[in-house]
């Protein structure tokens, strides 16, 4: 499968604060690990800083205006999306805010964990309203009391 997005949001589109996540949900971390393992991932440089290392068992692409190992420019990332959308291999868009917003129109499948809380202090958000217009729901998966995953396919 081609370009996919994996994201977790609070009920008001919150995704982060102080370049970190807003929650600690081991089940969701495990879901992220298992779902993206063996594929390629594209993340922003700030998300890479937040993770603090390359993700193992995955090809890591890091969007940045600075050149370096694993770093890609916007132009190169656009080209990657084009390639993956014409292939059987998967490229996961894994955030953060700038990267989700920039590549949302490339996404063919979305794995969206909805965390059933609001986070008024959040400083990173992703407007998910494009989903209701452009995607249909494939299935839902209960993770824990706090969060559940919905998988959506683009029409
Ligand atoms: N809840 C979730 O599912 C989830 C997932 C991932 C991340 N997050 C959260 O999201 C937040 C980070 O998001 P963010 O928006 O601040 O940062 P980000 O999207 O992770 O990274 C932003 C960086 O991308 C690079 N970039 C942006 N536009 C570019 C362009 N046109 N050309 C080349 N490079 C470009 C720049 O890197 P340079 O400065 O190096 O040029 C920029 O600083 C954190 O709080 C993190 O925890 C949440």
In terms of topology, how is this protein built?
Blueprint: E1 3-9, E2 14-16, H1 26-36, E3 40-44, H2 45-51, E4 59-63, E5 71-72, H3 74-84, E6 91-93, H4 97-103, E7 109-115, E8 124-125, H5 129-134, E9 135-144, E10 147-154
Parallel strand pairs: 1-6, 1-7, 3-4, 3-6, 4-5
Antiparallel strand pairs: 2-8, 7-10, 9-10
Give a short synopsis of this structure.
The protein has 155 residues and is of the alpha/beta class.
CATH topology: Dihydrofolate Reductase, subunit A
- Small molecules in complex: NADP nicotinamide-adenine-dinucleotide phosphate
Q: How far from one another are the termini? A: 15 Å
Tell how many strands the DSSP assignment holds. Answer: 10
Rg (CA only)? 15 Å
Strand order across the biggest sheet? 5-4-3-6-1-7-10-9
Counting helices, strands and paired strands, the structural category is alpha/beta
Q: Name the beta content range.
A: 25-35%
Question: What does the average pLDDT come to?
Answer: 97
| CATH 4th-level superfamily | Dihydrofolate Reductase, subunit A
Please tell me the total number of domains.
Answer: 1
Count, helices: 5
Order of helices and strands: EEHEHEEHEHEEHEE
Q: Which residues sit in consecutive blocks of at least 5 with pLDDT less than 50?
A: none
